[in-house]
Amino acid sequence: MSLMLKLLSTIVLLSSFVYANTASEKIEDFLEDKFMENPKLESVEVTVKSVVSLKQLPKWNAYIVAVKAVLKTKQLINQKMIWFSNGELITKDLIDIDTGESLVKKVKPKVKAKHYIKENLIYGNDNAKHKVMIFSDPLCPFCKGFVPGALEDMKKEPQKFAVYYYHLPLERLHPASVTLVKAAIAAEHKGVKDVVLKLYNVKINPREKDVKKILKAFNEAVGTNITPKEITSPSVVKEFNHDKFVANDLMVAGTPTLYLDGVADETKKKYLKVK
């Protein structure tokens, strides 16, 4: 659970915030005041990015908010989250009593043209019939079991699939993946082919933090000679941060995550059925 979610109870009253001019301002003011009750925070800024109406609850809306906070340790927090409110109550989640599904899953930021850039296109043509986005960590067990096979499938049909790949290393679980994906980006910049597929063949302890050991394992698997200096180059850092930005912008937190034509596919199998 993120730091921000720990700061608030599941459902609380909003009615005291009569000074806000709009519902969005009311949400922003309320969340900022509640977050600042945490003594570890130095400052916080909450901005409502979009509002989504709920068919199931006509008087309720989903609010996608961006939170920028600074801890007293000077650590920066920058994340998006979803809150539900009817103007009087606010809650982090709503569950459909018939299906058991969380409405959070139905309220996600929309994929935009800016999220599809040439640096992320690893297979297919940018004008292919279907656009696929894959967010993955090469050391995630679930990714290992899904991503290589999916990439091999879509690689065979370049006119059908434009495959955009985004590195999303889960640093807390797999520290070694950060160095690995930076090495992969550096290798791609040098023109090495099929780097992403080869990335899943690297043999390394996910908890390893020794950069030289990680790069040695990467170079052996990919057939390269990437150095520690290369993975800190401005172009590598820029692309690494871009992937992180896209994941945050779309509120992607887990791996593997797959989007087909701009829609999140929880089954990860819909690409097999498209014509």
Task: List the secondary-structure elements in sequence, H or E.
Answer: HEHEEEEEEHEHHHHEE
Average residue pLDDT: 90
Tell me the fraction of residues in β-strands, as a range.
15-25%
Number of strands: 10
| Count of alpha and pi helical runs | 7
User: Reading side by side through the largest sheet, how are the strands ordered?
Assistant: 1-5-4-3-2
Overall shape: globular
CATH architecture grouping of the largest domain: 3-Layer(aba) Sandwich
Stated plainly, the CATH topology of the largest domain is called Glutaredoxin
Largest sheet: 5 strands, antiparallel
Summed up, the domain count is 2
Q: Detail the poorly predicted runs.
A: 1-11, 15-20
Helix content range = 25-40%
Descriptive notes:
The protein is built from seven helices and ten strands. With 275 residues, it is an alpha+beta fold. The chain folds into two domains: 3-106; 113-272, Glutaredoxin, CATH 3.40.30.10. The strands form two sheets. The chain has a five-stranded antiparallel β-sheet, with helices on one face. Strands 6-8-7-9-10 form a five-stranded mixed β-sheet. Strand 9 and strand 10 (263-264) form a beta hairpin. The longest helix has 16 residues, at 234-249.
Topology summary:
Elements: H1 3-6, E1 11-13, H2 23-35, E2 41-53, E3 61-71, E4 76-85, E5 89-91, E6 121-123, E7 130-136, H3 141-155, E8 161-167, H4 176-189, H5 195-199, H6 211-222, H7 234-249, E9 257-260, E10 263-264
Parallel strand pairs: 7-8
Antiparallel strand pairs: 1-5, 2-3, 3-4, 4-5, 6-8, 7-9, 9-10
Brief description of this entry?
With about 280 residues, the chain is of the alpha+beta class. It is built from 7 helices and 10 strands.
